[in-house]
């Protein structure tokens, strides 16, 4: 991240004794996997991008629908029919040109999801409707720092997937 932009964008974070320069450097070097870009996922992604997270992996295979527009703030009428991960990445890059964004627009197998989790410092469940979420495998609970995250299994997926961070 460019130092001038980082110091301006992160000035309020750096001023907090709980974060400071060292904490902001950790935020800037972090990788976050966000699964689901609906109402919760859009808000989460916006805050992560504006806070200076260094790498955001956006995972959603759904497309924008007119019914999403009232609560999914990263999308507008021109986005209807487009993949959520692609449109969200464009908006987030405009918010923070220094962020690294990876888009995952396919339904992930257990192995692909395990790989994405392993590359991440934190995994966030952006799906608001747990009944629509995936059935995460217990093997998918380890992030790149080696920490284990345990979660109860959710109902069998019908349309999308989730990972509980436990």
What are the key terms here?
166 residues, alpha/beta, Rossmann fold, 4-stranded parallel sheet, 6 helices, globular
Please tell me about this protein's structure.
The chain is of the alpha/beta class and 166 residues long. The chain has one domain (14-140): Rossmann fold. It contains six helices and four strands. The chain has helices at residues 3-9, 11-15, 20-28, 39-51, 84-95, 110-118, and strands at residues 31-35, 55-59, 100-104, 122-125. Strands 3-2-1-4 form a four-stranded parallel β-sheet, with helices on one face. Helix 4 (39-51) links the parallel strand 1 (31-35) and strand 2 (55-59). Helix 4 (39-51) packs parallel to helix 5. It is globular and about 45 Å long. It starts with a helix and ends in a 41-residue tail after the last strand. Residues 130-141 and 149-166 have low confidence and may be disordered.
Write a brief caption for the model.
The chain is of the alpha/beta class and about 170 residues long. Helix content is about 35%, strand content about 10%.
> Can you say what the CATH homologous superfamily is?
NAD(P)-binding Rossmann-like Domain
Distance between the termini: 31 Å
Low-confidence stretches: 130-141, 149-166
CATH architecture: 3-Layer(aba) Sandwich
**Helix run count:** 6
Number of strands: 4
* Strand composition percent: 5-15%
Please report the first level of CATH classification, the CATH class.
Alpha Beta
The pLDDT mean sits at 81
What characteristic shape results from the CA principal axes? Answer: globular
The domain count comes to 1
Residues in helix, %: 25-40%
Side by side, the strands of the main sheet go: 3-2-1-4
What integer value in Å does the Rg equal? 16 Å
Following the backbone from N to C, one meets helices and strands in this order, namely HHHEHEHEHE
């Amino acid at each position: 991240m460019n130092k001038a932009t980082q110091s301006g964008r992160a000035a309020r974070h750096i001023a907090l004794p709980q974060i400071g320069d060292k904490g902001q450097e950790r935020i800037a070097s972090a990788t976050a996997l966000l699964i689901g870009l609906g109402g919760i996922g859009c808000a989460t992604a916006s805050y992560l991008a504006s806070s200076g997270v260094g790498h955001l992996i956006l995972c959603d295979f759904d497309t924008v629908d007119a019914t999403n527009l009232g609560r999914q703030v990263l999308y507008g009428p021109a986005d209807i029919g487009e993949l959520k991960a692609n449109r969200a990445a464009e908006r987030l890059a405009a918010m923070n040109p220094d962020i690294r964004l990876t888009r995952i627009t396919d339904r992930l197998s257990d192995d692909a999801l395990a790989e994405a989790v392993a590359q991440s410092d934190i995994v966030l469940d952006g799906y608001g409707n747990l009944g629509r979420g995936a059935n995460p495998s217990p093997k998918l609970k380890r992030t790149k720092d080696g920490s284990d995250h345990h979660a109860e299994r959710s109902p069998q997926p019908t349309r999308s997937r989730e990972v509980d961070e436990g």
